[in-house]
UniProtKB/TrEMBL annotation, chain A:
Species per Swiss-Prot/TrEMBL record: Lates japonicus
InterPro entries: TFB5-like_sf, TFIIH_TTDA/Tfb5
Subcellular location: Nucleus
A GO CC term assigned to this protein in UniProt: transcription factor TFIIH core complex
Keywords: DNA damage, DNA repair, Nucleus, Transcription, Transcription regulation
Family according to the record: Belongs to the TFB5 family.
Superkingdom of the organism of origin: Eukaryota
The protein, known as: General transcription and DNA repair factor IIH subunit TFB5
Quaternary structure and partners: Component of the 7-subunit TFIIH core complex.
UniProt keyword Nucleus, yes or no: yes
UniProtKB/TrEMBL annotation, chain B:
Gene Ontology MF terms in the entry: ATPase activator activity; double-stranded DNA binding
Keyword NAD recorded: no
Keywords linked to the UniProt accession: DNA damage, DNA repair, Nucleus, Transcription, Transcription regulation
Record-annotated Transcription factor Tfb2 C-terminal domain positions: 241-278
Matches recorded under Pfam families: Tfb2, Tfb2_C
Source organism of the structure: Lates japonicus (Japanese lates)
Name of the featured protein: General transcription factor IIH subunit 4
Family recorded in the similarity comment: Belongs to the TFB2 family.
Function: Component of the general transcription and DNA repair factor IIH (TFIIH) core complex which is involved in general and transcription-coupled nucleotide excision repair (NER) of damaged DNA.
Cellular compartment(s): Nucleus
GO CC list: transcription factor TFIIH core complex; transcription factor TFIIH holo complex
Length: 71, 286
């Protein structure tokens, strides 16, 4: 029988995908949210974690940025 | 109406128009607050703002019980009238008189007193007709845009953007200062200059409010100081690229709602489903 899952398709670049896999493995969001790993740039995830995921990505970007200007 | 040093309360009609145009939203019982469309509106140049507002007004005019044809013909008359000459309110119907009062609040028409029989079109009204052409040409030619944008606004370009992410705005106006503060951090204020810095936090704050990088860049370009206009391209490419990059940083992930079908029993089933799907989805042949 065909299995049907409802979720959200995420498209991103390869580096971001690795970050999402890392979050999934370490259960950083409290649970595993990746339903299926589709290919290098696509993932299928649970629908409800979308908001928290955006926040986590935002935090990652903040960690990797540095103030380029001096006041 | 905007930019005048005295803060006058706007009339009820006007406040309602702002809400209807989607520029402000009012929760039940609370004062209205600005929406993201409102932020975008603020960063447009004067001619675009004027037209946006006029169009919104015309849309709601019908519901007010005013005759659209009359209003439109009067509006066109106004934009072709000569600056400095006065016109009489003779023979204007009730709805036209109401329209005239609204125009007075917008700043398109000047009248000594509410009851006075004569009115003068302002510079802003004259640019209504000319406005559309200048806003499109300012993007292509940098030298003529400054001349064209002065009649309505009164300040020529006044912003200098440096490659160290600093913005110098040579202005006294509260409005202009507030607009620059929307997407940058204020550093110093002097009697005729305001120094601000464009930082990652400030731009991302603006983006969270609903302003796009393109609008910020357009805002800076249309108000660029004549000194800036001499160099090509007008704004330093480092700054424009960096603003766009900061916007893209937020968009690293794209979400689309979808349904996953897997473990097909037969190849034929899979092929039928794949052919029927019009929307692009990703499928794996594992």
């Amino acid at each position: 029988m065909v299995n049907v899952h409802k979720g959200v398709l995420v498209e991103c670049d390869a580096a971001m995908k690795q970050f999402l896999l890392y979050l999934d493995e370490t259960m950083a969001l409290g649970k595993k949210f990746i339903l299926k790993d589709l290919d290098d740039t696509h993932l299928f995830i649970l629908a409800e974690v979308v908001q928290t995921l955006q926040e986590r990505v935002g935090e990652l970007m903040d960690q990797n940025s540095f103030p380029i200007t001096q006041k | 109406m905007v930019g005048s040093p005295s803060a006058r309360a706007v009339s009820q009609d006007l406040a309602q128009l702002l809400v209807q145009a989607g520029l402000m939203k009012s929760e039940a019982g609370e004062a209205p607050y600005i929406t993201s469309a409102g932020f975008q509106f603020l960063l447009l140049d004067t001619a675009s703002q004027l037209w946006y507002f006029t169009l919104q007004y015309l849309k709601t005019a019908q519901s007010r019980g005013m005759d659209l044809v009359e209003i439109l013909s009067f509006l066109f008359q106004l934009s072709f009238s000569t600056l400095g000459r006065d016109y009489s309110v003779e023979g204007m119907s009730e709805s036209l008189l109401t329209f005239l009062q609204h125009l007075r609040e917008f700043g398109l028409v000047f009248q000594r007193k509410r009851k006075s029989r004569r009115y003068y079109p302002t510079r802003l009204a004259i640019t209504l007709a000319a406005g559309v052409t200048t806003s499109s040409s300012s993007l292509s030619s940098s030298s003529s845009s400054n001349l064209a944008s002065t009649p309505g606004t009164g300040d020529a370009g006044f912003i200098v953007v440096e490659t160290n992410y600093r913005i110098y705005a040579y202005t006294n106006s509260e409005l202009q200062t507030a607009l620059v503060a929307l997407f940058s951090e204020m550093l110093y204020r002097f009697p005729n200059v305001v120094v601000a810095q464009v930082t990652r936090e400030s731009v991302q704050q603006a983006i969270a409010n609903g302003i796009t990088a393109q609008q910020i860049i357009h805002f800076l370009r249309t108000r660029a100081h004549p000194v800036m206009l001499k160099q090509t391209p007008v704004l330093p490419p480092t700054i424009t690229d960096q603003i766009r990059l900061w916007e893209l940083e937020r968009d690293r992930l794209q979400f689309t709602e979808g349904v996953l079908y897997n473990q097909f029993l037969s190849q034929a089933d899979f092929e039928v489903l794949r052919d029927r799907a019009q929307v692009g989805f990703c499928f794996l042949t594992k």
